Amino acid sequence: MKSSKLSIERKKYLKKEKTKKFLVFITQILILVGFLGVWEILANTKVIDSFITSQPSRIWSTFFNLTSNDLMRHVKVTVYETIVGFGLGTILGVGIAIILWWSKFLAKVSEPFLVVLNSLPKVALGPIIIIWVGSGMPAIIVMAIAISLIVTILEMLNGYLKTDKEIIRMARTFNCTKLQLLTKIIIPANIGTFINSLKVNIGLSLVGVISGEFLVSKAGLGYLIVYGGQVFKLDLVMTSVIILGIVAGIMYGGVILLERFIRK
User: Fold this and answer.
1) E strand or H helix at 231
2) Which of these, 98, 51, 94, lies nearest to 198 by C-alpha position?
3) How far apart, in whole angstroms, are the C-alpha atoms of residue 61 and residue 65?
4) Tens digits of per-residue pLDDT, 17-35?
């Protein structure tokens, strides 16, 4: 009797949660449609200058022109650079964080350098990176790594150092080696920290790639944005920015799917 009652209550709760999610989704769609509608009306009635702000109909037309004019090539270049920079930045960041956790001496020595490097605007390093690495894709990938690497090191190291001290003490009473401590306790306890680092890094890597494409590129969404600004094609700029937002959303969604897979 109790189990059937609980089952009914559970079904009601799940139905209520689904209704909430549906209402949130519908509200988001209505806000987006309303915003685009108001934007289009204001542009058509000359309340705003469509040359400066563009308008949805012109952006739509520009998008279709781009699809027949190497749009996918530019998207692929930006996505490839972001994934490579994101992957290398995450791997190197986690690896360095483990080394610093392993050696408290190195952690103390590197702490002020990491703080300074984290606060330093990475775009300012752009010209130096171009001279060292060369122009083109390598410089853009290095820029993405430079932006995401320090954040990953600091976040992961902080998570490692804040792992439950009581669990660590208990493990040491059973003569747990440092390697066992790392693989059996420290890393598993910081899966959540790792996932949060991935969520932050995907955005930072994309920022690094676009910054690099602003400075030196012959393809990519950043290149389209710079080119559109130089020739005063604001429709191209706005279209590229919107496509960039969609790409960022899809890549963030990929991280969410990875999180679900890891947590299972």
Assistant:
1) none
2) 94
3) 6
4) 788 888 888 998 999 889 8
